[in-house]
Amino acid sequence: MPMRTPTFIAAALAATCFLPACKKDSDNATPSGNTGFSKTDYEIISATLNLPESAFNYTGFNLPAHFLAPPVASTDNTPVNTNPTTNDGATLGRVLFYDKTLSINNTIACTSCHKQANSFTDPSQFSQGFLGGLTDRNSMSLANARYYVNGKFFWDERAVTLEDQTLMPIQHAVEMGMTLDSLEKKLSTKDYYKVLFKKAFGDENITRDRISKALAQFIRAMVSYQSKYDDGLTALGHAPAPNEDLPGFTQQENQGLRVFTANCAGPCHNTELQTMPVARNNGLDLVYADNGVGKITGRTIDNGKFKSPSLRNVMLTAPYMHDGRFQTIEQVLEHYSTGIKNHPNLDNRLKDPATGVARPLNLTQQQKNAIVAFLNTLTDSKFTTDIKYSDPFK
Ligand code: HEC
Q1: How many CB atoms lie within 10 A of CB 68?
Q2: 360: cis peptide before it, omega within 30°?
Q3: Separation of 153 CA from ligand 1 center, angstroms?
């Protein structure tokens, strides 16, 4: 029977390809241990979504050495026992993040205010919610949100975990205007969510707890680690000593690194991710219209204190500060150089230790230019264009 042989060979080849060793590997694909969707399930999700047959790799990327050891590694806020990140969980989180049906009138998704090209913040000073109303603060970059040691979220740190945070914009009166009851019902009517929840959590139950966990997993998977600065650190092989240059940096970038380390890093924007460990007052105003942490705790000693997210990709995240008051990085540097206000809660590091009054950095124009050159080395265009963080809807 001449027809038998080719059919048999094709069938044998197809069977062999179920072995992990035969699995196709791209940069983003999970190398092993990851089972794809069944054929029927893949057809269901493919009607609406552009997802790979086997999840992208959200957990095992090749992080450089400076991410894997302290200080950066010790700032990871992943609750490994209750919500470890998985490739299927983050995939579900990605779909939820880009889904406008999370808002009551299907007009706003998380990404409306957190755009990948801007390192997941909004280039507008304030963002528009589902009825066109504006938020009262500037949206925040989500890059490396995972590496914030106290694990609290928002400018005023009112969300004590990322899992708590993710359900808040959905229910916010200006942002998305939903109730969690109607959210669960609404998502349960969609077959692709049944498939995705089952893949991520083992069964088709669509609950608020799982929604919050999947969104948190996707956000924790947003790790920016491929900037010029990362390449420099990897080439050097250790944390640079105060006067040590980074290989591959221009003279100006290296000068910027030194000026930044001397004036801005220290206990403020520190670690290789330029993250501040707690919220602080940086002397923006003498009297704050928005008291930040003080508004939440009711304590005057917390007035004017705000979280500072990681400065990774900071050149893409304008405008700056909690109220987006500075349109450019030059205005930010001018604030630290000459504009710090003598607020009673002004952080010690911005005060003269002898007199207790504000100590402006008085940077020269050359130093400011060098800092900007250094901040540009924190831009990671692989992160802002990576398909695994992009809109999956067709
Ligand atoms: C209408 C605009 C808007 C929408 C929609 C929105 N956000 Fe935000 N997001 C903001 C603003 C503004 C802030 C800062 C608010 C504050 O601190 O009070 C913020 C802050 C955050 C933070 C805190 C980051 C940090 O480092 O502390 C996270 C995380 C976040 N949003 C995730 C989400 C998720 C997940 C969704 C979708 C479920 C979402 N956002 C929807 C505007 C929005």
Answers
A1: 9
A2: no
A3: 9
Q: List domains and CATH numbers for the chain.
A: 23-62+76-224 (1.10.760.10), 228-378 (1.10.760.10)
pTM: 0.92
Is the CB of 113 within 6 Å of ligand 1? yes
**Does any ligand 1 atom lie closer than 6 A to the CB of residue 343?**
no
* Residue whose CA is at the smallest distance from ligand 1 atom 41: 110
pLDDT tens, 288-347? 999 999 999 999 999 999 999 999 999 999 999 999 999 999 999 999 999 999 999 999
User: Does the CB atom of residue 323 touch ligand 1 within 6 A?
Assistant: no
Q: Which atom of ligand 1 is nearest to the CA of 170?
A: 38
The per-residue DSSP string of 108-168 comes to --HHHHSBGGGTSB-SSSS-B-TTSPBPSS-----TTTTB-TT--BSTT--BSSHHHHHHH
Q: Work out the mean pLDDT of the chain and round it to a whole number.
A: 91
Give me the torsion for CA of 51, 208, 116, 310, rounded to 10°: -130
Q: Which residue, chain included where needed, has tokens 């791209």?
A: 26
Residue with the two structure tokens 């209750």: 82
Please give the Cα distance from 69 to 85 (Å, whole number). 19
Q: Which atom of ligand 1 is nearest to the CA of 108?
A: 5
pLDDT number for residue 14: 39
Residue with tokens 């008051």: 325
Lowest mean pLDDT of 15-24, 108-117, 148-157, name the range.
15-24
Nearest residue (CA) to ligand 1, atom 32? 166
Q: Which amino acid is at 297?
A: T
> What is the whole-number distance in angstroms between the Cα of residue 253 and the centre of ligand 1?
32
Tens-place pLDDT, residues 218-277 = 999 999 999 999 999 999 999 888 889 999 999 999 999 999 999 998 778 989 999 998
121 CA distance to ligand 1 centroid (A)?
A: 8
Q: Express each pLDDT in 160-192 by its tens digit.
A: 999 999 999 999 999 999 999 999 999 999 999
